[in-house]
Specification:
Layout (H helix, E strand, L loop, with lengths): L1 H5 L12 H20 L12 H4 L13 H12 L21 H13 L9 H16 L7 E5 L2 H17 L3 H4 L2 H4 L2 E6 L4 H9 L7 E4 L9 H13 L3 E8 L11 H11 L2 E5 L24 E5 L11 E5 L2 H8 L32 H37 L3 E3 L7 E6 L4 H15 L5 E5 L2 E7 L7 H19 L4 H20 L7
Parallel strand pairs: 2-3, 2-4, 4-5, 5-6
Antiparallel strand pairs: 1-7, 6-7, 8-9, 9-11, 10-11
Helix pairs in contact: 5-14, 6-14, 7-10, 7-13, 14-16, 15-16, 15-17
The structure holds pyridoxal-5'-phosphate.
Length: about 525
């Protein structure tokens, strides 16, 4: 180790010897990435990863230096062409946002500043505070509300469970654990809620059995009567209901719970009202959708992702809490090395590290600030409304096509449907794999009432009618082929697709042609 250190010149750092070289390469990277986004339609949505590509990432730890240009070439040849695909308008799987060129540039600027947003007195913290204030205004929360950026809604939901825990048990639970009182606490959500709520209850120390998953109606909205009855049954059994998690956009079909009724019930029962608004909450930006979210402004806390419908590049999750003091009581932990001053760099209490588990935090706020400032919330709201209109268009196409079947009501931007066939689960699973491997479209699957559905979540601002038409045409084509074949044809197709990808690699080695 010492011998290695001795090889460094006396003032040698990691900065380049010649800034002109890195400037030129940096400009090229920027041009390439702008081209990548601008010409995204010319590429497949996603493509299978050939073994030769995977092998690039099974190397020994690089002890010795490599030329930056060579490292970049590996990125251009082997990473960029094999990314998830959610930048592409044909990506409709899970609930992935498309990002934007503006967000991409902001990420570069944030990386240059290399700011640590755990705390201290610098303007990046003010930028985060500005966005917190904007989010507060979006949801009509009071001035004392607090908020911060986190990785995603899974983390924001977990933190909300912890804040609700503090509200129910007091701060002392942080020292003593949840104890006997905590063992009596019960939480409520719907059967259609995202799995991260169950995980949050487990991680928070309550155990997932303390979460009651309430039945839903035919539109996948929580059954309020059943919720009320379950709370009453639990109280009668000596338990202490402390939290209801409502969904503003369920993951499977985009259902929005009756938030007004949940709010009223929580108020009556003195229970923490949290909204999982991972993607749906930003529907408040659209005048058409906002009325369907009525009641969200009464929540005690809201979890949401700017990286979904907000089109901010990953990751940009967010937690908003009405009672900032309770939020602080849940996470603030004084430490000598984090002492606050009235002047100097350590001034400016409160720090974001007081509001969450992370001390070191990146500048997620910058890409969100750039996105909100550059596009404005009206335009983002219009993009959100358009993806719902596209979902309605897909619904109409499915309804008009006798070979297709709609499997769930279309609430927002998610359409669940399938190709009619004997052995429909197998056929539709294969259709989705074939669609993904063809590079034409990338929906995902889910199970609805025991039936496998093709699930198209339209989130990307680039998605247009032509992408919906391509999806429908391909489902019909692959469906006809799959229904006529046995399972082994799938593997033959996969082999063919793989060798096609190998050919693509050989022809994509130009550095500026991902
Ligand atoms: C309703 C809902 N809740 C929570 C999550 C988890 O969010 P994240 O992936 O940002 O952690 C999702 C993800 O799609 C979701 O749709």
């Amino acid at each position: 180790m010492l011998r290695e250190a001795a090889q460094l010149g006396p003032s040698e750092t990691l900065d380049p010897q010649d800034w002109a070289d890195i400037r030129a390469l940096g400009h090229r990277m920027l041009d390439d990435m702008i081209d990548y986004v601008a010409t995204i339609r010319e590429r497949p949505v996603w493509q299978p990863i050939p073994d030769v590509v995977r092998a690039q990432f099974r190397e020994e730890l690089p002890r010795h230096a490599n030329e930056l240009g060579d490292v970049y070439r590996t990125f251009a040849d082997f990473i960029a062409p094999y990314a998830t695909g959610n930048v592409h308008p044909g990506f409709m799987g899970w609930v992935h946002g498309g990002g934007s060129a503006v967000g991409m540039l902001a990420e570069m600027l944030a990386a240059g500043l290399n700011a640590n947003l755990g705390g201290r007195d610098h303007v990046p913290i003010e930028v985060e505070r500005q966005v917190v204030d904007w989010v507060r205004q979006m949801f009509g929360f009071p001035a004392g509300a607090s908020g911060l950026f986190v990785t995603g809604t899974s983390m924001a939901n977990l933190m909300a469970v912890l804040v609700a825990r503090t509200c129910a048990l007091g701060k002392s639970a942080r020292q003593h654990g949840i104890g006997d009182q905590g063992a009596l606490l019960t939480a409520y959500t719907s059967k259609a809620a995202h799995g991260c709520i169950t995980k949050a209850m487990d991680i928070a120390g309550f155990g997932s059995d303390a979460l009651r998953c309430i039945a839903v109606d035919e539109s996948h909205r929580i059954d309020i009567d059943e919720l009320r009855e379950q709370i009453a049954r639990d109280r009668a059994a000596g338990l202490k209901p402390f939290l209801v998690v409502a969904s503003a956009g369920t993951v499977d079909i985009g259902a929005i719970d009756d938030l007004d009724s949940v709010a009223a019930l929580c108020h009556e029962e003195q229970i923490w009202f949290h909204v999982d608004g991972a993607f749906g909450a930003l529907g408040v930006l659209s005048p058409e959708l906002a009325p369907r979210l009525a009641g969200i402004e009464q929540a005690d806390s809201i979890a949401l992702d700017f990286h979904k419908w907000g089109q901010v590049p990953y990751d940009a999750g967010f937690l908003l809490v009405r009672d900032g003091e309770c939020h602080r009581d849940t996470f603030a932990a004084p430490a000598a090395y984090l002492r606050r001053e009235t002047r100097g760099l350590a001034a400016g209490s409160e720090w974001p590290c007081d509001l969450g588990p992370d001390l070191s935090r990146g500048f997620r706020a910058l890409k969100t600030w750039f996105t909100l400032k550059t596009y404005g919330t009206d335009r983002l709201g219009a993009i959100i409304a358009r993806s719902c209109a596209l979902a309605a268009y897909l619904e109409a196409r499915v309804r008009a096509e006798p070979r297709l079947e709609l499997l769930a009501p279309v609430n927002l931007n998610i359409v669940c449907f399938r190709y009619r066939a004997d052995d429909a689960d197998r056929v539709n699973r294969e259709i989705v794999v074939n669609l993904q491997e063809s590079g034409i479209a990338a929906p995902s699957t889910t199970m609805l009432d025991g039936r496998l559905a093709i699930r198209a979540a339209i989130v990307n601002h680039r998605t247009d009618r032509c992408d919906i038409d391509a999806l429908v045409a391909s489902v019909l084509e692959f469906g006809a082929r799959r229904a006529a074949s046995g399972a082994d044809l799938t593997f033959a197709t996969q082999r063919a697709t793989n060798s096609q990808s190998e050919r693509q690699i050989q022809s994509s080695t130009r550095i500026n042609n991902f």
